[in-house]
Each structure stands twice: as C-alpha cells, then as structure tokens.
C-alpha cells in the first residue's frame, strides 16, 4: 500500500529531488514550497505523513506544526531540518511531532519513519472507527 | 634552589608584563621598592635625627660637666695649697713679730721654737736667722749651716725687697725635696734680719695625691719655668720640665684642651698659686673623663641599631607581604581574564561554526537528495543498473556528503551545550570501556596500554557519555601520535579534597610550545591529511568544562604528551547562563 505524504520545504531543489526519490519508492508525494501552501493542501486532502522543514521564511516549522495539529490532531508530522536546537526539538515533541530528523537525512531512515507514521495513522483511524461503531451501536440500541 | 630563591617573593621572580591587554596593574618590584624606601625614610629619619640630637646633647653636657668638675677641683686645690703656704708664712711672720732678735739668736730658744712649730704645723725641717748681710747667724736643724753666707743668692735679695720669699722645691743635702720660706723683719733701729725655714714637701704631696681625679688623672705643681715640683703619677719625674706649655698668668683657674706626648687628648687645668712660684696643674685624660659617656654612647648606638634592624625587618616583611598579596590577586585577575578570553574565543568560534554548519546543512541536504535521486534513477532503470562504475561514483558522492554531515553535526555539537545527565560511575570502568574500542588498534600497532587507578577512588556522579567521549578523543589522539610499539599510561589518583585527576601520558611525537597553544582551537589539526577534523580536542575541552573539570596539557617535542584532567567528585551547581 502506497503512502500518501506531503513535503513542505522552502528549498525547491530539495523538494523536487526528494519527491522524485519518494515517488521512486512507491509513495504518493505532494509538495508545498511554503508553510501557507502546505496548510492549504492539508485542509484539501488527507495525508499519511507530513514532512516539515523547521527553518522557513514567513512562517517557521514550529508555528506550522502548531496550526496543523490544531486543525488535525491525528496528522503525523515528521520534522526534517538542517539544524535544530534542543529547545526546538522538545517544543516539537510537545506539540506532537512524530520525530525530528537532521538534514542530510538518509533516505532509508526517512522512509522507515514514514512507514511508522503510516502505521500509527492506521491505528488511530482504526480506533476511531471502532469508537464510532460503538457509538452508533449504543445510540441504535444494538 | 638556594635559600634566597626560596624566600624570594613571587612578584620579584616573575617577569613584569607591562603592555598588552594582560598587563599587570602595577610594577610590583617598583612598588615594593618605593614602599620599602618611603616607609623606611619616614620611620628611620626621625629616629636617627632624634638619636643624633640626643647623642650630641648628652655628649656636650657630659663634657661640660666634666670640665666644670675639674675646674672646681682645681680651684679647691689651689685654695688649699695657697692657704697651706700662707699659714706657714703667717706662722713665721708671727714668730718674728713676737720674738725679739736676741731671743731668736739664742740657739736653745730657736730650737724650742722649731719644736713648737713642728708640733703645731708639721713639715718644718730647720730654722735659721740671717742677718742683713746675708750670713746665717743662728741655725737649728739637721745640717751644719751655721755661718753660711746667702748674700749672693737671688732669694736673699728678693726677701730684702718684698719682705718674704717662697722658694722653688729643691733637693736638699739629704736628697729630700723641700722648699724654703723666709720672712724679713725690720728692727726699730732700721736694721733688719731674716727668719728662714725649710719645709719638707710631704704634706704638700699628700694634698695633691689625695685629690679625687679618677682614671689617669694627675695633679702636681710646677714652677714658672715648667719644672715639676712634686711627684707625679703619670708625668715625668720631679725636677724635669713638663711636656705641656706653661699657661699665661691668670688669677683664675683656667682650663684648656691639649694633647699629651702620646698624642691623646687631655684636659689641662692650671692655676697660679698666689704669692708663690708655683702653678698647680691638673691633667686628666679626656677618654677617662668620658668613660661614662662611652658607656651611654654604646647603649645609644646599640639601641639605634636594634631599632633600625627591627623597623627594617618589619617594613620588609610587611611590604613584601602586602605587595605579594597584591601581586597574587592581580595574577588571579589576569588568569581569569585569560580564561575568559579563551572561553569567549571558543564560544565565538563555536557560534560561527554552528552558523556555518547550519547554513551548509541545507545545501548538503540538496546534494544528498540529488545524488540519491540520480542513484535511484540508475538503480530503478534496468539499462544502468548494471553500470557499477556510475553507481560507485554516486556512492562516493553520497559518502562524502555523509562525511560532511558528520563534520557539521560535530560542529553543532561543539557549539551546543547539551544537557549533562548524571549517573554514578566508576572511573576505572569508564576508562576500560573506552579502551575496548581501541583494543584492536592497540594490538595491531603493538601499543602497550597501562591503566593504574588508585584504589581509594570512590564512585562519583558524572556524565558517562561525555566522559567516554573525552577519554576516547584523548586516547585516539595519543594513538595517532605514537609509532608502533608506543606506550600509553593512564593513571587516576585523588586530588584532595574533592577532585580526582586522570593523567594520560603517551611517548609519541609530542608538540611544540606553539602547537600547544592552539590545540583546543576548532579546526586546528596536525593530522588533516589523515582525516582529522581538528574538532576532537576543542570538543573535549568543552566537555571537560561542562563537567566542571579542568584540562591541562604538557608536551615535549619528540618525547610525548601528557594530558591531565581534573574532575570534581561532586557535580558542579548549574552555572547561570
């Protein structure tokens, strides 16, 4: 099953290369070259994982992460950054990021992370479905 | 090391740094010299001045008192001698007035008179009556001077003129010194006769010798020609000329300073005895007179010497102590400045490095992804998948990117102050763990490693990972400095009260002084060609500081290098950021 991911990074070169590599690994990749664009795309469709850069102009990664998580708490976000301080790392974890990887990242490590994200997403969706069914069953009196 | 070197204060031993940002606040040896000089001046000058004044005043007062006393003794003696002579003269005058010429010319009566005079006055040797022609008409006494003609003698004419005469002392027939007193008596008929007596000088001498003069003091009579008339203790013999000049005539007792034959200073007190040819002389040695002064002077000088020594000693000790403490405080200040500058330098280099690393990471990521993409393209395209040469090239690009990534991560790690996670560790175990990483290399290169941990090192709270990294870096460096068959010694010993010191010594190539100064700077490396990043020791330095320790290095080119790491047994309190 192919993973559906969104790449948010202000470096277009990085985006294109990365997305092609991801595609080569059977993933459905959408790219966004700014936080704003990324947010728009997230609200338009659902993704298994979002790969988010920390250092971006206009709106940085942490801010974006905050908004993403507010809108969609179940969204799996992996931060990928040139360099993060400990403080940023902790902040990101508190906000519910799945992980923080440093550039240049190994593609295999990244794909492994994405698979984890997808699995987690699946788990959450399953749980939700279960709950919904239980609720329906309760209301219908089955 | 000589004793002088040992007591030499630190500030005199060190070189004075007068320029540059790390110059000392003062020139300590100059301050010390000035402090010594000024304090000595303000304390010693008044002391010496007062002592000198006291010295002079005391000397003068003792001197003048001595002179005064001598003068008093002189005038008393003069009065006594004068009254002695005038008494005898008065006795004779009384006799010639009381007795008639006939009575005196009667030898029997004259003999009774002589006896009476001897009994009542003493010293009378003989008695004779001389007529106006100068012939001794009657004589009683031990000699046969009856009929002796004195008319040709000077004294005879003097008596005729003056009415009395007191002679110089002379040796008589018995070789005993004596003097003559003669008085003239004029009879109512106008004729005259002379009563003459000889006195021995025993009483005289007694008078002079009993004078309290002290030391080598001497009192005697001379006549007006300077011939000694009475025995002396220290001068020439009787009837010889004195060696001093005869003083000018004066009615009063005079005192003056002179020199004796030996050239020693003396006090000469002289006094003309009235109505006689005698001059009383009192000679005193100045040194004897000043005996008490000499003692006082010795005490004074001794007191001064002791005071000066004590003052100088105290000033020396105190100035040295103060200046040395100032110097040490300044040294500490400079050391802290040095350290601050060094850590500032490291911090700014660290910030720069972090900035650069951060900026480089992004393009590096692009290279990584592009190269990865190319590799992907090749791998997933059947045409090229078999072309191992191109895949190999791309792999080498990727591995270079990875290496760059490691460098930037290390750089960032150097700048980043990671949290210290404390756990109880045993230093020996940590060292052995580190050595297991390097066992293979040690074996391969035949390097002997000796670990010597003192048994009384307790377990202590420290960050295991950081400690491992520190030792790994240093041991790695040591390994690369040593040739085949090198020797590495690691010792751990306590540094009371609450530190331990780990010493890592190798017998490798060593470093020069210049190299030593730079080893903690990032990117300084002597093995750039063999893949060193030049970050190992700067990271080590940062790590040791984070653990609250200190790192020191000594090295001799060609002989080896020793790193000593001092670690606290109790983790330091978090410093304010």
TrEMBL record, chain A:
SUPFAM superfamilies: CheY-like (SSF52172). GO terms for biological process: phosphorelay signal transduction system. The modification 4-aspartylphosphate is found at residue 53. InterPro entries: Bact_response_regulator (IPR050595), CheY-like_superfamily (IPR011006), Sig_transdc_resp-reg_receiver (IPR001789). Gene3D superfamilies: 3.40.50.2300. Residues 4-118 form the Response regulatory domain. GO terms for molecular function: DNA binding. Keywords: DNA-binding, Phosphoprotein, Two-component regulatory system. The keyword DNA-binding applies. This is DNA-binding NtrC family response regulator.
Automatic annotation (TrEMBL), chain B:
It comes from the Bacteria. The chain crosses the membrane at residues 31-53, 300-323. It is an enzyme of class 2 (transferase). Its EC number is 2.7.13.3. GO terms for molecular function: ATP binding; phosphorelay sensor kinase activity. The keyword 4Fe-4S does not apply. Residues 355-571 form the Histidine kinase domain. This is histidine kinase.
């Amino acid at each position: 099953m192919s993973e559906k991911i969104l790449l948010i990074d202000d470096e277009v070169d990085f985006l294109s290369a990365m997305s092609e590599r991801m595609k080569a690994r059977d993933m459905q990749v959408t790219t966004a070259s700014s936080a704003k664009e990324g947010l728009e795309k997230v609200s338009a469709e659902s993704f298994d994982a979002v790969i988010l850069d920390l250092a971006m102009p206009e709106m940085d990664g942490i801010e974006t992460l905050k908004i993403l998580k507010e809108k969609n708490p179940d969204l799996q976000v992996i931060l990928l950054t040139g360099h993060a301080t400990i403080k940023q790392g902790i902040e990101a974890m508190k906000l519910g990021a799945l992980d923080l990887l440093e550039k240049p990242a190994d593609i295999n490590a990244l794909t492994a992370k994405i698979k984890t994200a997808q699995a987690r997403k699946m788990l959450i969706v399953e749980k939700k479905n279960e709950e919904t069914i239980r609720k329906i069953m309760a209301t219908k009196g089955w | 090391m000589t004793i002088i070197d040992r007591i030499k204060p630190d500030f005199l031993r060190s070189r004075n740094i007068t320029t540059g940002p790390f110059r000392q606040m003062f020139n300590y040896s100059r301050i010390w010299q000035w402090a010594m000089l000024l304090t000595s001046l303000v304390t010693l000058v008044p002391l010496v001045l007062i002592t000198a004044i006291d010295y002079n005043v005391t000397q003068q007062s003792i001197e003048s008192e001595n002179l005064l006393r001598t003068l008093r003794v002189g005038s008393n003696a003069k009065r006594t001698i004068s009254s002695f002579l005038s008494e005898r003269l008065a006795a004779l005058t009384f006799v010639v007035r009381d007795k008639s010429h006939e009575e005196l010319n009667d030898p029997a009566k004259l003999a009774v008179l002589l006896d009476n005079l001897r009994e009542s006055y003493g010293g009378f040797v003989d008695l004779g009556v001389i007529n106006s022609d100068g012939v001794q008409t009657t004589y009683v006494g031990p000699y046969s001077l009856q009929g002796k003609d004195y008319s040709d003698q000077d004294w005879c004419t003097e008596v005729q003129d003056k009415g009395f005469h007191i002679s110089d002392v002379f040796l008589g027939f018995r070789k005993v010194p004596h003097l003559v007193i003669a008085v003239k008596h004029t009879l109512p008929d106008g004729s005259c006769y002379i009563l003459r007596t000889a006195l021995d000088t025993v009483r005289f001498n007694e008078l002079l010798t009993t004078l309290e003069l002290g030391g080598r003091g001497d009192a005697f009579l001379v006549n007006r020609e300077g011939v000694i008339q009475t025995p002396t203790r220290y001068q020439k013999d009787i009837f010889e000329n004195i060696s001093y000049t005869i003083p000018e005539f004066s009615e009063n007792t005079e005192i003056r300073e002179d020199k004796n034959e030996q050239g020693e200073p003396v006090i000469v007190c002289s006094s003309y005895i009235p109505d006689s040819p005698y001059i009383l002389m009192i000679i005193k040695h100045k040194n004897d007179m000043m005996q008490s002064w000499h003692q006082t002077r010795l005490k004074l000088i001794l007191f001064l010497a002791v005071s000066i020594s004590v003052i100088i000693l105290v000033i020396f000790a105190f100035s040295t102590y103060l200046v040395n403490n100032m110097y040490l405080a300044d040294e500490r200040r400079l050391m802290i400045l040095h350290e601050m500058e060094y850590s500032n330098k490291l911090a700014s280099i660290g910030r720069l490095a972090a900035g650069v690393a951060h900026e480089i990471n992004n393009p590096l990521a692009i290279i990584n992804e592009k190269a990865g993409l190319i590799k992907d393209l090749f791998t997933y395209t059947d045409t090229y998948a078999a072309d191992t040469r191109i895949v190999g090239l791309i792999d080498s690009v990727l591995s270079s990117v990875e290496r760059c990534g490691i460098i930037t991560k290390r750089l960032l790690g150097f700048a980043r102050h990671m949290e210290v996670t404390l756990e109880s560790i045993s230093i020996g175990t940590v060292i052995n763990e580190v050595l297991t990483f390097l066992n293979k290399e040690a074996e391969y290169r035949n390097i002997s490693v000796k670990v010597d941990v003192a048994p009384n090192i307790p377990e202590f709270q420290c960050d295991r990972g950081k400690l491992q990294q520190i030792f790994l870096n240093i041991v790695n460096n040591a390994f690369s400095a040593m040739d085949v068959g090198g020797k590495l010694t690691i010792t751990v010993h306590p540094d009371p009260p609450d530190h331990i010191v780990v010493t890592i010594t190798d017998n490798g190539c060593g470093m020069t002084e210049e190299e030593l100064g730079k080893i903690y700077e990032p990117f300084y490396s002597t093995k750039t060609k063999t893949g060193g990043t030049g970050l190992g020791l700067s990271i080590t330095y940062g790590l040791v500081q984070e653990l609250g320790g200190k790192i020191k290095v000594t090295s001799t080119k060609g002989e080896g290098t020793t790193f000593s790491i001092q670690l606290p047994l109790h983790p330091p309190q978090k410093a304010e950021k």
